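pinging the channel bc i need a second pair of eyes. not urgent but kinda urgent?? the chain im working w is below, pasted from the shared doc
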Amino acid sequence: MHTNITEINAVVASSANFVQPLSIPSLQSFAIPTLHACIPRAGFLPPQDSTITKECADLARLLIAAGIIDTASIPEHATTVHEVLEFGLMSWFNANVGNLKALEVRVEILRPRSMQALIENATDDDYYGEFDREVTGAFGIQFNGDSGWNPYTVSEAAMSTELVAPGLFKAAMAAIKDAASISVPIRTAEFALGDFQGQWENWGEVKLPCDDEVLETLRDRFEDEATAQEYLPSVLLPILGGDLCLTSLVPKKDRLTLKQLTGYAKSGADLDVRAIASQVLNLRHAIKVANREQARLPNLEGLNVNPIEPGCSLIYQFDQRVFAAFDDHYKSSMSDGTADEMFGLDDLPNDPLELKSYFERLSLALAVLNEMDILISMIAKPHYMQD
């Protein structure tokens, strides 16, 4: 049985009568419940402080007015404003996020004081330098990763797919790369290649070096001939998947056209090829719609930091050198203050129409997330790492 709108309004209205200041600033956050069974619940509800209760009552009223919280989704036993928010937002996210299999994501709603403290901490001049993220005093929404370092490998699907449908696997990886820029970061072979280019002193170059161009550099770096040989371009590129996984190595003229991709979807060599091609088309359509509406999940723009936790790690095959590169990137980015473990952070609008529009765009970005997760699950297998 559901609580009716009159009862919900009574709960929200009564909660808004308390106006007492907090005595101690807090970074406690109201966390939206788990998005799917594989993700543990993150954070915890704020304590029943009167100021927090009033803030949450204001947010609940706003979300109901914007049509984000469907009052029919609130069960009868929800007797506090925190429960109205919890069940209402859980219902919205469950309706917009599928049963994610490969990607690992957490979402939190941050109260205004927490939002302000988080931004001020993440943009401290002594640590991050100047910043341009405005502190508005509004509620915030934060997306985080959750142990996305466990890798998924794609070598099996890459080889079998390219054998019968040339270019299809490359198209899948390119679509995933585009989707990650809208939704959540994916740790791919491109990140490892960047680290290796640093070791080759070839950083940022489009053309990769030959072995004899970097051998002496590697010998100086490692002071060991055997190790230097292990990091030669001809040795590492196959481990990274070559142009199957390194989309930057595929010239535009060699990429599949929409007509070719549609052909694979309709009449590919086998069921797997048709399914992968169809899913690439689904993902590309979701990306197109999201881009048209300028939809994206919260990012770290304006905070002068980059997300360091991936939604998942997607590599060609497991190799310790690849994960050593990931680890080096993580340590250096965290130590120099250029990275943060959250994916992104947004202010929630405090106008019902603007809030409705924000959640509509958020829904489009989550559609990209869903379609990307489906595609990754089709072409990748988990490689469970030992602690």
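so The first strand starts at residue 30 and ends at 31. and Residues 15-47, 125-131 have pLDDT under 50 and may be disordered. — does that match what u expected or am i reading it wrong
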